[in-house]
Specification:
With about 270 residues, the protein is an alpha/beta fold. It has a single domain (about 1-270), classed as 3-Layer(aba) Sandwich (Rossmann fold). It has six helices and nine strands; from the N terminus they run H-E-E-E-E-H-E-E-H-E-H-E-H-E-H. It has a five-stranded mixed barrel, surrounded by four helices. Helix 1 packs across helix 2, helix 2 (about 90-100) packs across helix 5 and helix 3 packs across helix 6 (about 245-270). The longest helix has 24 residues, at about 245-270. The structure holds hypoxanthine. Hypoxanthine (HPA) binds near residues 114, 192 and 208. The site of hypoxanthine has 13 residues, from strand 5, strand 8 and strand 9.
C-alpha cells in the first residue's frame, strides 16, 4: 500500500512538474461546477494514473485537475470512488492517501444527499459537523499502516471547527441560508425506504448519502483537517418522500452548486 501511494505520487509529481497543492478537493455528484473556477495547469485522466481506480457512475467523469482557485494551489478530484461500485474501502480512499503524500494540508469534500431533517428543503446546503458511519466497513480495517497514522485514530473532531465557523461566516456574508448537521453514510446503491429514512432521523442524522465518510476517516487517520458540504437533493421526510432517480439527484445538485462553489472559493481564499 505505502509503495503504491509513493509510486502514484511520484508519477503525478512528474506529470505536474512538481506542482505543490495546499488543498485537495473531492467533488460529488452533480457538483462539478467548481471546476470552471480553476485556473487549470494540469489535467490527468484517472485511467492514466498508476494504481488509481477508474470511476464508473454516470455524472462522475474521472479526472485529476491541478491549478489555482482563489490564487491557492489545489488539486481537484472530479469523480470519486464509491463503495457501492464494488471497490474495496482501500480503493475508495486511495486518492486521499495520495493527496496527503503530495502535501495537501486540508481536504475539502462535497456530496449529494437525502435530507431527513424536517427543516430541510431540496437544494439546501448542509455543512457537515459530524457523521455516523453506517457503511458495512471501514477503510482502516486490517493491519494498521503506522506510517499513515495510529491504530485507533481519534474522531472527536471529524470536521474542522475553525473551517466550519469560517464557512458559516462566509455563507452569511453571501446571504445564503446554510444548515449544519450530521451526515450518515450508507452503502446504497438503493435509495432509502420510508422506514429507513425514519431510522436515519431517529439515530441522529440530518442527511443520508453514499460517500464522504470513508475519505474523511482516511484523512483523519493521517491527521488531515476536513471540511465537507452536502447538497440536499431529495427529502426523506414523512409526507415529502417521492420517487427519486439519479437524474433527479444530479438536477437538484446542479441547482445548489452555485452556493457550494461560492463557499468553497471564499474558504480557499482564507487558507
Ligand atoms: N439517500 C442516499 N443517498 C443519496 C440520497 C438519498 O436520499 N440522495 C442523494 N444521495
Amino acid at each position: 500500500m505505502l509503495q503504491q501511494i509513493q509510486e502514484t505520487a511520484d508519477y503525478i509529481q512528474k506529470r505536474t512538474n512538481q506542482f505543490q497543492p495546499i488543498a485537495g478537493i473531492i467533488l460529488g455528484t452533480g457538483l462539478g461546477g467548481l471546476v470552471k473556477e480553476i485556473d487549470t495547469k494540469f489535467i490527468i485522466p484517472y485511467e492514466e494514473i498508476p494504481h488509481f481506480p477508474v470511476s464508473t457512475v454516470e455524472g462522475h467523469s474521472g479526472k485529476l485537475i491541478f491549478g489555482y482557485i482563489s490564487n491557492k494551489p489545489v488539486m481537484v478530484l472530479q469523480g470519486r470512488f464509491h463503495y457501492y461500485e464494488g471497490y474495496t474501502m482501500n480503493q475508495v480512499v486511495f486518492p486521499v492517501r495520495v493527496m496527503k503524500k503530495l502535501g495537501i494540508s486540508t481536504l475539502f469534500l462535497s456530496n449529494a444527499s437525502g435530507g431527513v431533517n424536517p427543516a430541510f428543503e431540496v437544494g439546501d446546503v448542509m455543512i457537515l459537523n459530524d457523521h455516523i458511519n453506517m457503511l458495512p466497513s471501514n477503510p482502516l480495517l486490517g493491519p494498521n499502516i503506522p506510517e499513515l497514522g495510529p491504530r485507533f485514530p481519534d474522531m472527536s473532531e471529524p470536521y474542522d471547527r475553525e473551517l466550519i465557523a469560517r464557512a458559516k461566516a462566509i455563507s452569511q456574508k453571501l446571504g445564503y441560508k446554510v444548515h449544519e448537521g450530521v451526515y450518515i453514510s450508507v452503502s446504497g446503491p438503493c435509495f432509502e425506504t420510508p422506514a429507513e429514512y425514519r431510522l436515519m432521523r431517529v439515530v441522529g442524522g440530518d442527511a443520508v448519502g453514499m460517500s464522504t465518510v470513508p475519505e474523511v476517516i482516511a484523512a483523519r487517520h493521517m491527521g488531515l483537517p476536513c471540511f465537507a458540504v452536502s447538497v440536499i437533493t431529495d427529502l426523506g421526510v414523512e409526507g415529502k418522500i417521492v420517487e427519486v432517480t439519479h437524474e433527479d439527484v444530479i438536477k437538484a445538485a446542479s441547482k445548489a452548486e452555485v452556493k457550494m462553489t461560492a463557499i468553497f472559493k471564499d474558504l480557499l481564499a482564507s487558507l
